[in-house]
Design brief:
The protein contains 20 helices and 3 strands. It is mostly helical. It is elongated.
């Protein structure tokens, strides 16, 4: 297909231009196409200087088999203007063909609110759609190959595939993103992804809860399944390299739920809990600024719940790391800081009993001293298996000893019987 794309930000020059040919060659090519039975192009290139001249439209080979747009063809055409103002790409497309491939386009182009036919074709503006992502969508709907060139465009294409309910395109974008996922772009891919996964996203944090496959024809469910796969790949990568992820500025742009999901993961290969606290502190300060609030310690504390703040495993820090980091930030109260310092130093004085009682019901009850990381869980599993194996070996040895002692007792009893028999005989 050829594209009717005009980049308004480039002085009206077409993003893709067709070689100019004499009118006779154009008409001859159209006659040959009509006689050979080949389908006509779905999208055409429309020079900007002719876009508003109805008398020049006959010179542009739109989709008519004879090179001149018929009245019914005019009624079927619509101009799509994609992208922000002064930075748009324009497409002249067939309403009916797009409506056949997408329910969303059916409602937009043929529904009650569709623009009426006109000459030149009416314009539908899509200002909040990424241009290159929309370009991939049109290519896919017209059965043309989609070749992604960057993670940013592929992620935007996944957004538009979700918006226009196109599961095949979503799977293509997910496949590319999974193949090109790195620690430096994982947050870009992750941001907003859980919204597409919907209720299936819980299977990432709770693998023991299986999710049912989507019903046949459930396009939203198919997209959600693809996004769940991508979400799992993102979380696995974050687990393996949390230091790089937490130090990125994009962490401050995540949603609160996304921050909570990451901070609470037991599988993070994180040896410095202070890095996580610093990331949470930065996120809270950015959230204060987004809301027009001064990022004071009290203001930052209210931006995140106690569950998130205490997902940081403070007791795994050294006393110096805690005092110079979380304690100095002022986010924690003096009572909380004193209790945590006492836990780090291993103090168990009587004067701390009341604090320990308060810790069973307040935020301090969320303190965790178990190291993170998949290696820890594997170590526990191996230790459990080793303990089970040792127990089985010990039981086996005990059974052998018991059998040996029973044999000895049996032999002794038999010997005693023989002695009695012999004594009776000789008597």
């Amino acid at each position: 297909m050829t594209f009717a794309m005009i980049d308004d930000g480039d002085n009206g020059q077409c993003a893709r231009s067709r070689p100019e040919r004499p009118r006779e060659k154009i008409r001859e090519g159209l006659r040959q196409r009509r006689t050979s039975g080949k389908s006509h192009p779905l999208l055409i290139q429309l020079p900007k200087n002719l876009a508003n001249k109805s008398d020049s439209m006959a010179e542009i080979p739109l989709i008519s088999d004879v090179g001149v747009m018929a009245t019914n063809d005019q009624d079927n055409m619509v101009m799509l203007e994609v992208g922000p103002h002064r930075d748009t790409w324009r497409y002249c497309v067939e309403r009916q063909r797009l409506a056949e491939r997408s329910e969303w386009f059916r409602a937009m182009l043929l529904g009650p609110l569709a623009p009426p036919p006109s000459t030149p074709p009416p314009t539908v503006r899509l200002e909040h759609v990424e241009k290159r992502a929309f370009d991939h969508l049109l290519r896919h709907l017209h059965d043309e190959p989609v070749n992604f060139q960057s993670v940013t465009t592929a992620r935007a294409t996944l957004d538009i595939a979700h918006q226009y309910l196109c599961p095949q395109l979503a799977r293509l974008a997910v496949k590319y993103l999974e193949a090109n996922l790195t620690s430096s772009n994982v947050l870009e891919v992750l941001q907003g992804l859980s919204l597409y996964a919907g209720s299936m996203a819980s299977s990432i944090s709770k693998p023991e809860t299986p999710s049912a496959p989507p019903a046949p024809g459930d396009e939203a469910g198919e997209i959600a399944m693809a996004c769940v796969s991508l979400l799992g790949a993102c979380m696995t990568l974050i687990d393996s390299d949390p230091l790089t992820v937490f130090r990125q500025e994009r962490f401050e742009e995540l949603a609160r739920d996304e921050v909570a999901d990451i901070a609470g993961r037991d599988s993070l290969e994180l040896k410095q809990e202070g890095v996580l606290f610093t990331a949470l502190d930065r996120w809270a300060a950015s959230e204060c600024r987004r809301r027009g609030i001064e990022p004071t310690p009290c203001g930052k504390r209210t931006m995140l719940t106690d569950e998130i703040w205490f997902s940081v495993r403070y007791t795994l820090m050294t006393d110096k790391e805690f005092i110079e980091g979380p304690m100095a930030s002022g986010v924690l109260t003096s009572k909380e800081s004193a209790f945590i310092v006492s836990k780090i130093l291993g103090h168990h004085h009587d004067r701390l009993q009341q604090q320990q009682q308060d810790a069973t019901t307040g935020p301090l009850s969320r303190l965790c001293s178990v190291p993170r990381g998949s290696s820890t869980s594997v170590h526990r599993k191996l230790k459990k298996q080793k303990n089970g194996k040792s127990e089985r070996e010990e039981n086996r040895k005990n059974r052998k000893k018991e059998c040996a002692s029973q044999g000895q007792r049996a032999c002794a009893s038999l010997g005693n019987c023989l002695v009695r028999v012999l004594a009776c005989v000789f008597d």
